[in-house]
Specification:
By secondary structure, the chain is mostly beta strands. The protein has seven helices and 52 strands. The two termini are 50 Å apart.
């Protein structure tokens, strides 16, 4: 058994550890031999050891004899290491040992200064601020804590608020080598007016190869000064991770800034509100940001910064200094509200997966894009390995000159399907080659824009344009659309301006070796169906133009139709086919007789579901929670 400390009552050393150096060893054996056969008065274990026997009468029978030696032998080489520390800002004292709730430290920093091994710092119920922790205070993990896995959390579910006063940060990890810092279930705030990204500050700043994990935390108050939530600064160390679960950030600058990190994981139950920047941003240093993997799952993100900022800004990612590709960017089942852009990732990543998110753009900013994967322009663009954009809902509350989804340059062989985009200016822009663009519902002024895309399949999309075009091809002066397939789509154009076409070709005649067929065209207010080789007011005129076109298939659109597709309620967001629609079961037949109606969502009424791998559309719920 262990002798218990008179202050804490907690085990401090084994009874055979006479010199109290933490281990029963040879020095204690010498001590014991010097008291051999000494007589002393029996004492209680709750009292101090007898000064006569120097604590060597282990069985308390009044003499140091063989029975005491037997007990000493049992404790041989035994050690007691107390690694957990306790802090109470109201009643604690830094002169205590901090080893128990009854003998807590007063300041959290005192506890960290004594965390040389892995353990937990328990915060007892109180508010830790400048009145108890000192003026201009903040917390530092330094070389003393190297290699330790440190947890800071409330004691027995206490309600704890940590409010620092330093003008630089709340928690700084600097000088600590290896190990991890975990924060759990308390509120972290700062009284400082300037913890901004401009000055390289933040509520939490990690400069070392230390993993950072937050669970059940609340960071910031959303009103004080200009504050960054978490800042992971570059210093040639990329082995660290950032993990957030059930954590809320409410800050006035960027939510999370990462210059260098191995893996970023933001998981279920998190919410990030930024009133002056991005919710999460990979910030380049000398043009690049070293990140291996980013996974954001079931998280609410709210960026209230007006302008060209994205709620999720993952541009300029590389894995390491040799510019190896990052492994994965995955954003799924999130709810994104932004006054700028929604989600962006435009650098070298092996796999980009963006699925089942709800993105709402709440401000009329002209450059906003709901989901942007890849570059806007091919100049200096970098490729992605695999791009999957599935099952997302993107909407705009204003009439800004913006895009819903951009499949940018470098996103070759992208799979973009089952998305619903409404509002904005252009709903879906495709610039990468070799993609599959399918089963998308697009509603707004200019719904589908193919910009130089080659070897791309556009199939089973419902494009309902209210002003401009349902489908536009453009070569942008560098390359013409070539070897594409455009089949089984619904193209509706409801406006009547002379320049508007349901399908609009740049330079009147730029599709080369492209197959058009089994589409439904409808322009009820007098707009032309197309401009292939000139104005084509009807499908019959378009078919005649294909027959005489030198760079295509003369039988293009021979199975297409010009008719009202009878969509249920486009203005109300319902794009299923009404009973009796001519689009039922009139798409190109598939070898297995499967999904054979024209458009995106008609399978609900056709009685046959689209063949989609379950993991890609598995959740019936999009967005967080």
């Amino acid at each position: 058994m262990c002798i218990r400390d008179s202050c804490s009552g907690f085990p401090q050393y084994y009874p055979g550890d006479f010199d109290q150096n933490g281990i029963v060893d040879l020095l204690d054996l010498i001590w014991f031999s010097q008291n051999w056969l000494d007589s002393c008065n029996p004492v209680s274990f709750d009292s101090d050891p007898s000064p006569v026997c120097d604590g060597c009468d282990l069985d308390n029978n009044g003499i140091v004899d063989l029975s005491d030696y037997a007990l000493f032998a049992v404790d041989w080489l035994a050690q007691v290491t107390v690694t957990d520390k306790y802090v109470n800002g109201n009643s604690g004292s830094d002169s205590n040992d901090g080893n128990s709730p009854s003998c807590p430290y007063k300041t959290i920093q005192k506890a960290l200064d004594n965390m040389t091994a892995s353990g937990t710092v328990y915060l007892m119920e109180s508010t830790f601020d400048s009145t108890t922790q000192g003026a201009n205070w903040y917390l530092t993990c330094d070389a003393t804590n190297s290699g330790a896995d440190i947890i800071i959390k409330p004691y027995q579910g206490a309600s704890v608020t940590v409010r620092t006063q330093s003008p630089y940060y709340c928690i700084l990890v600097n000088g600590m080598t290896g190990g991890a810092l975990t924060l759990e279930d308390f509120t972290l705030q700062s009284e400082a007016a300037d913890l901004s990204s401009t000055n390289g500050r933040g509520l939490i700043q990690n400069r070392e190869d230390v993993s950072l994990a937050l669970s059940g935390m609340t960071l910031g108050d959303g009103t004080t000064g200009t504050q960054v939530g978490i800042y992971c600064r570059y210093n040639d160390k990329t082995t660290r991770d950032i993990t957030l679960t059930d954590t809320a950030l409410n800050v006035t600058d960027e939510g999370i800034i990462v210059q260098s990190c191995d893996e970023i994981s933001i998981d279920s139950g998190c919410s990030i509100t930024s009133r002056g920047g991005s919710c999460i941003k990979t910030q380049p240093l000398s043009g690049v940001c070293y990140v291996s993997k980013v996974e954001i799952h079931r998280t609410r993100l709210n960026s209230q910064a007006i302008g060209g900022l994205y709620a999720i800004d993952l541009d300029n990612i590389y894995f390491d200094t040799s510019k190896e590709w990052a492994d994965l960017v995955r954003v799924d089942n999130c709810t994104v509200n932004s006054w700028g852009g929604g989600i962006t990732c435009n650098q070298n990543v092996y796999v980009v997966l963006v699925r089942n998110n709800t993105v709402t753009i709440n401000h009329e900013y002209d450059a906003a894009v709901g989901i942007r994967i890849g570059k806007d322009f091919p100049t200096n663009s970098y490729p992605h390995g695999m791009t999957i954009i599935y099952g997302n809902t993107v909407s705009f509350t204003g009439s800004s000159n913006s895009h819903g989804i951009l499949v940018g340059s470098g996103c070759d062989n992208a799979d973009c399907g089952y998305n619903h985009v409404s509002g904005g200016d252009i709903q879906l822009v495709v610039k990468g080659d070799g993609g599959q663009i399918h089963h998308n519902v697009l509603y707004g002024p200019r719904t589908l824009y193919s910009k130089e895309a080659q070897r791309t399949v556009f199939t089973h999309n419902t494009c309902y344009s209210t002003d401009g075009y349902a489908f536009k091809w453009i070569n942008n002066g560098t390359q013409d659309p070539d070897c594409c397939i455009v089949e089984n789509n619904i193209f509706v154009l409801t406006c009547a301006a002379a320049a508007d076409k349901a399908v609009l070709f740049n330079n009147d005649d730029n599709p080369f070796n492209c197959r058009f067929d089994y589409n439904c065209y409808y322009a009820p207010n007098g707009a032309d169906i197309s401009n292939l080789g000139g104005a084509r007011a009807s499908l019959a005129e378009l078919q005649a133009a294909w027959a005489s076109y030198d760079f295509g298939f003369p039988d293009n659109d021979s199975h297409s139709k010009e008719t009202d597709p009878q969509l249920t309620d486009p203005a109300g967001g319902e794009f299923t086919l009404q009973p009796g629609s001519a689009c039922f079961n009139t798409a190109r037949p598939t070898p297995d007789g499967g999904y054979v109606s024209i458009g995106a969502w008609q399978a609900r009424q056709a009685g046959r579901a689209p063949t989609v791998p379950a993991p890609l559309v598995g959740s019936p719920i999009t967005g967080a929670f």
